[in-house]
């Protein structure tokens, strides 16, 4: 179906009351009927599915209307230009099933689409209020006066103004998308992609990886149709695939195929199992509703039952509990490991031995090639020391010094600034004397 189909709707003569946080143009690619007016919906809170008009799906009356102090502001039209450009680019990608034809203008439109879709949803809007309530609970435990005007929770109008501000100041988020490389994935079998009420979702293949646009190793996914998924790739992943493709051999055939597809702009085929894995990211990171071209949501219900706590999501992030460290990373390997984040790359060093009396983090690893590569950076962003899934230490702005006099693989992670390093040494020595 041509791109013009999705742009043929006439503009309303007056501002609409029904405001979409997932655009109708995007949902039409998942329509169940030839006229592209109906879509299947699954409600995570009830476990029930039903058919909805696309006009009603992914929307809420007055969602982008501020009523405050007797005034009324409908800012739905603020999204029109981005929505029109986004509808055009998605329709062309779906029609051509390739990214190879895109030029700078299309890449920018794609990044803008991802940026706006990320913060315009109900889940994104509700997050600041949830964080504010968590902060108020924390301050209440510390004895603060919650009736103080500065501690008042944000109103619904405040949250909507936040959406407007995020839209106006979205350039930095768009730049974060632009540093990522877009690629396409398509099913090889009968499985098909879902989309949700918060369709831009994150994953990270590294056990220590975070879910944020600037996180190293990040993958950002947006389903374009039941048979096409768009993924933006972190440059560190692209570099690893490029390195693999530059070597001879037949090992890692699936990764090589993925790398060729990403480099060429053509879709990479994946198994039904992998499609289900991508779908479950939509399930867990959505707020409440899932959308599909088919009424068969049986797999979704089974996965939700197997993983309690994924029914309705109330915020994108939450505050940690006072006095607790970072939550465990359940996929980290056993034993002692150090995660290294540099300005351009990252890695995990398995530690064979740790010197508890050494400066900074002093340890020995058998991963000599990784150690040598990491030590070449004169200033690393930070390192993290893990014992299994639990983080034990975090050091920022460090460098790695190899300790050849202690033998192969010995090194220490210390502050890159020698003056601050000397101050830390004095504090440690003074602390040792006081304890004695």
Written description of the protein model:
This protein is α+β, with helices and mostly antiparallel strands. The chain has 2 domains: 3-306, no CATH class; 336-435, no CATH class. The protein has 12 helices and 19 strands. The protein has a 6-stranded antiparallel beta barrel with strand order 14-15-16-19-18-17. It has a 5-stranded mixed beta sheet with strand order 9-10-11-7-12. It has a 4-stranded antiparallel beta sheet with strand order 3-2-13-8, with helices on one face. β14 and β15 (346-355) form a beta hairpin. α7 crosses α8 (253-264) and α9 crosses α10.
What's the quick description here?
The protein has 436 residues and is an alpha+beta fold. It has helices spanning 24-28, 80-96, 104-119, 122-141, 156-168, 171-178, 235-245, 253-264, 272-285, 298-306, 368-375, 418-435, and strands at residues 18-20, 38-43, 48-53, 59-61, 65-68, 71-74, 181-187, 195-196, 201-203, 219-225, 228-233, 268-270, 289-292, 336-341, 346-355, 361-365, 380-387, 390-402, 410-415.
């Amino acid at each position: 179906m041509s791109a013009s189909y999705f742009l043929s709707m006439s503009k309303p003569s007056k501002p609409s009351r029904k405001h979409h946080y997932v655009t109708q143009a995007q949902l039409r690619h998942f329509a169940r009927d030839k006229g592209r007016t109906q879509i299947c919906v699954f409600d995570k809170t009830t476990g029930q599915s039903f058919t909805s008009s696309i006009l009603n799906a992914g929307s809420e009356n007055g969602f982008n209307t501020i009523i405050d102090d007797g005034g009324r502001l409908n800012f739905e039209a603020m999204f029109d230009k981005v929505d029109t450009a986004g509808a055009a680019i998605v329709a062309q990608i779906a029609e051509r099933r390739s990214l190879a034809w895109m030029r700078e203008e299309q890449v920018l439109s794609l990044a803008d689409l991802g940026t706006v879709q990320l913060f315009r949803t109900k889940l994104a809007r509700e997050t600041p209020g949830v964080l504010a309530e968590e902060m108020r609970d924390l301050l209440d435990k510390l004895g603060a006066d919650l009736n103080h005007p500065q501690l008042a929770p944000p109103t619904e109008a405040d949250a909507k103004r936040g959406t407007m501000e995020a839209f106006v100041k979205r350039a930095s988020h768009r730049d974060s998308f632009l540093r990522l490389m877009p690629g396409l994935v398509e099913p090889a079998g009968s499985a098909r992609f879902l989309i949700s009420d918060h369709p831009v979702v994150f994953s990270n293949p590294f056990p220590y990886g975070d879910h944020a646009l600037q996180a190293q190793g990040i993958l950002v996914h947006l389903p374009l149709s039941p048979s096409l998924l768009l993924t933006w790739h972190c440059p560190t992943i692209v570099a690893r695939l490029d390195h693999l493709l530059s070597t001879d051999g037949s090992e890692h055939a699936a990764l090589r195929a993925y790398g060729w597809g990403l480099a060429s702009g053509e879709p990479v085929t994946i198994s039904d199992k992998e499609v289900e894995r991508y779908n479950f990211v939509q399930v867990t990171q959505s707020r409440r509703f899932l959308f599909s071209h088919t009424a068969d949501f049986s797999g979704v219900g089974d996965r939700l039952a197997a993983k309690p706590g994924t029914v309705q999501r109330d915020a994108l992030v939450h505050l940690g509990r006072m006095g607790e460290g970072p939550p465990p990373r359940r996929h980290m390997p056993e034993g002692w490991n150090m995660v290294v984040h540099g300005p351009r790359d990252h890695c995990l060093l398995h530690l064979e031995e740790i010197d508890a009396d050494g400066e900074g983090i002093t340890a020995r690893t058998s991963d000599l090639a990784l150690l040598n590569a990491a030590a070449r950076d004169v200033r690393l962003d930070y390192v993290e020391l893990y014992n299994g899934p639990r983080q034990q230490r975090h050091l920022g702005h460090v460098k790695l010094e190899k300790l050849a006099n202690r033998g192969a693989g010995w090194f220490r992670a210390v502050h890159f600034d020698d003056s601050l390093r000397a101050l830390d040494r004095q504090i440690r020595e003074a602390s040792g004397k006081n304890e004695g």
